[in-house]
Design goal:
This protein is of the alpha/beta class. It is built from eleven helices and 14 strands.
Amino acid sequence: MFCVPSTETGAIMNITKGGLVLFSANSNSSCMELSKRIAERLGVEMGKVQVYQEPNRGEHLIVQIQESVRGKDVFIIQTVSKDVNTTIMELLIMVYACKTSCAKSIIGVIPYFPYSKQCKMRKRGSIVSKLLASMMCKAGLTHLITMDLHQKEIQGFFNIPVDNLRASPFLLQYIQEEIPDYRNAVIVAKSPASAKRAQSFAERLRLGIAVIHGEAQDAESDMVDGRHSPPTAKNVAAIHPSLEIPMLIPKEKPPITVVGDVGGRIAIIVDDIIDDVDSFLAAAETLKERGAYKIFVMATHGLLSSDAPRLIEESAIDEVVVTNTIPHEIQKLQCPKIKTVDISMILSEAIRRIHNGESMSYLFRNIGLDD
């Protein structure tokens, strides 16, 4: 269970009201729910700002800050909408507007960092998350608060402090409180790549672990992560007759196997992002065939794009639990199996600590290098 240390409310209020401004960079009203929750927990009003598009001017984004930010700590909360590129531009324009308005510091609160899956060199591609990090720093961002980056190494793309918070305490609490027979559960990694996360959950809950191996390779397989760029030259002998480079044996997908016992147990699949649900549906079918009688899926970020709600509703999955780092109210209406865990508590506490100059180490207690 995650608990925020007790502090006198009056002290928080007095310090917070002194030089803190809280903005929501979203022009989409459905994306402002998290911002309002954070503001309520901090006991402050949302800053006055207008973010909108003018259709008559080529869909140009307009940001108008309607109160003074001079010498203040500005926290800009940005949640990702369907139009991710507009989301990014809203943030960059607002950050730059605060910079040119002489804000003391500009802290971005971006629970889900967009383009985080594009953090490796692809074949004749680019590391988009590094480009995005550079753009944010150039615009004037001085600090970043985010949650469960797809790869922790993304923090190295920034030349500013980055606090990569964890949602696992809230998901663990949900398991303990909302799954009555969770002691009879097993934590499942749907691929070897997510085994470390599954191990972290299993060790904290004192449960067993199972790993599904042999599913179809996804977009992050070794074939497309850049290790084949530049492409292998077929006519090596034409370059140098005596040069014989040994070729790496190509991978062959083994048949699907489940390492670990799931028979007669609750299977809890854990991951960081749920976007395209095909791999989760395939994992659920495999677990059902191996005897699991109930299947939960837990992740921090619920992108749930395309027809994911319909597929989940028709699948063997009993419940999908995600946090509110990304708004998904429409998806919940389409699929009652989707449940939400609120993480505004830890984001508001991070904002309070940064503004008051307090240590952030409390929010990272018991978190190891592999978590």
